[in-house]
Amino acid sequence: MAHRLLTRFLPFLAWWPLTPLILRADLLAGVIGALVQVPKAMAYAQLAGLPLQYGLYAAFVPAVIGALWGSSRHLATGPVAVVSLMTAAAVTPLAVPGSEDYIGLVLLLTLMVGCIQFVLGVVKLGSAVNFVSHPVILGFMNAAAIIIGLSQLDMLFGIPKGRSDFFFKDVWEMLGYLPLTHLPTLAMSVFSLALMLVVKRIPVLARPGILMVVLITTLVSALVGFEHNATGRIDQIASPRAREIVDNYSRTAERIQALNNDLTELATRIRQAEKEENLRTAADLRYRFDLLDLDIRAAEAENRNRLRVIRRMYFVRAAGDGNSPPALHQLGQEPDGLVTDGRRWRVKRIGAGEMQLMGGGEVVGAIPAGLPSFRLPGFSFDGVLQLLSAALVIALVGFMEAISMAKAMAGKVRQRIDPNQELIGQGLANIGGSFFRAYPASGSFTGSAINLQAGAQTGMAMVFNGVFIAFTLLFLTPYIHHLPKAVLAVIILLAVVGLLTPGAFVHIWKASRADGLIAAATFVVTLVAAPHLDKGIMIGALLAIGHYLYRTMAPRVAILGRHEDGTLRDVKVHTHLATSSKVVVIRFDGSLYFANIAHFEDAVLGALADHREALYFLIVGDAINSIDSSGEEMLHNLVAQLHQAGVEIVFSGLKKQILDVMRTTGLFTFVGEHNIFSTEDQALAAIADRLGEEERCNALFCRVG
């Protein structure tokens, strides 16, 4: 008993004893999984809008905690494509990707996701995830796959990326930059894609294929000088018009930052005034807040327009003589005879009068070595409110991805999965990760499949996986400096191809038109609402719940007659069934609760109106699984009403839980034990006896006569 209680709080104790054979298998599986995970983790961090090392952080701490406190022995917890995209979608409207504010909000989001999952697990609401039905997840996943793929266009082609509150507007803007495609970046994308497709076809190389491609492309990048970055000052731009636009952009960006600081201060003062119930001061501050917010929006709109112009600018740089900084001339406006450094430069980032210039392809660059330091997520009431809906959706979607993979693997190894314990494990993984700079993690399909195929026996495989990730952070980061970001984009692209399942839409449509429409609606709304992905899945979930309520509000009610084979069947389907003018038999295919009692009552009264000579009304209750107080009250009134009209209500096939309610409330006594039977044949036999010889020969009673 004590051991059982202990393993409930420390589930990893169930792995013991760990034999050398098990440890060797787990160590091998952990190392193989980590080799694949390292490049993918960085790719997913890029997708989440974070510095690449944050992907490794998410593959380190959450992986270990998720393995120790989850119920699955093979589930790999870490960064995944869909959750990475949803993280970016949730935080990008609130801060600039990669900035300190952005990172702070992401860590807060991770903590919120973890807390939601943990609480749901503790109160045993693992089944709450069922509110997000399969058609909703199908529509969401397919839309997310398309969004993920399109979001990598800038990395694949080496073009600027739009940033607005409407994803397809950004995509349209990126397509406008296609003439500016950086050919070496495109070549690297095509090369890495071809290489990955080739190694996947070779069985021996398929598993370590991604790692091999990363090593090869990193080496090629370093040898050919793929990366070319430089810095420059705005006053080095020799073209007057270009210098003016860049300078105005820089000054406006500084002004926006100052205005945002003032806005934050005003928000604090408003909350303080409201707390002190100083309504006049609060109203005055709110008015100033709104004006300041309008100023910021106008300035941001101006800078977005300037940025579109800047992104189309290419510069050539004069070959410096070492005595003075080289001048930058806009391409096509350079003086005749100018000796350049042989490169075309574009502005990557502007700030404080300085420019970061890029004359080659983008690479991973310097990744800070070392393990993630302990850091409390910055908590703010405004941040929690802004991220709450996204945190709830990420928590549910992340857990659905994790539990579906865990169940799939459990079926193969005959292991029992506890959804509530898995929720606790995923929650603790994200809570712990939030203190060590990890963004929201979930169960990884690829990582878990590799873990299982590599022969993992227990969750120690993921502990070893985390240890290897830590080793990478400590010692291997300098060696991936020249890894092209285009290669990471290709990794993401291939990873999400499996999420595209058009055939599943056809299958769902064949099974249920309503489910097909829900899946299609979720798909369309997710695409249209991007980057606000939570709207798509929330609307899909509401549609699914609404459809369920609609079906249960009007379940099927069938009037039955005797078939030639002796069974009772629906007279609407089989029009020549034997019936009796003295007896009406109906079957109600649903539970009786407040939302459908009117439908049931109308069906009964309608059937009696069509059979005015009826003396008995038999309700076949085999399909009634539950009844609430409203349903019991309705039955009580209906029995009394029909009794006054000279019609006796008889029940058959009622389940124990229904009879228990009837006995507790006195309805059983009111109906009478003589009117409640185990089967419809017993009920019809009793009714035939009461009607006498004249009706006994009716074919409706032939099976029991």
Account of the protein in words:
The chain is α+β, with helices and mostly antiparallel strands and 705 residues long. Helices cover 60% and strands 9% of the residues. It has 28 helices and 13 strands. Strands 9-8-10-11-12-13 form a six-stranded mixed β-sheet. Strands 2-6-5-3-4 form a five-stranded antiparallel β-sheet. The mean pLDDT is 85.
Count of helix runs: 28
Q: In angstroms, what separates the terminal alpha carbons?
A: 58 Å
| Number of E-type strands | 13
What would you call the quaternary organization? single chain
Strand count, sense and closure of the main sheet?
A: 6 strands, mixed
Low-confidence stretches: none
**Structural class label:** alpha+beta
Beta content: 5-15%
Backbone shape: elongated
Widest sheet: strand ordering: 9-8-10-11-12-13
What is the helical fraction, as a range of percent? 55-70%
Rounded Rg: 33 Å
Briefly, what is this?
The chain has 705 residues and is of the alpha+beta class. It is built from 28 helices and 13 strands.
Write the SSE topology.
Elements: H1 2-9, H2 20-47, H3 53-58, H4 61-69, E1 77-78, H5 81-91, H6 100-122, H7 134-151, H8 153-157, H9 167-176, H10 183-200, H11 203-206, H12 209-224, E2 229-233, H13 240-275, H14 279-311, E3 315-318, E4 328-330, E5 340-351, E6 354-358, H15 381-413, H16 419-434, E7 442-443, H17 445-453, H18 460-476, H19 485-497, H20 502-511, H21 513-529, H22 533-553, E8 557-562, E9 568-570, E10 583-588, H23 597-610, E11 616-620, H24 629-644, E12 648-652, H25 656-665, H26 667-671, E13 676-677, H27 680-691, H28 693-696
Parallel strand pairs: 10-11, 11-12, 12-13
Antiparallel strand pairs: 1-7, 2-6, 3-4, 3-5, 5-6, 8-9, 8-10
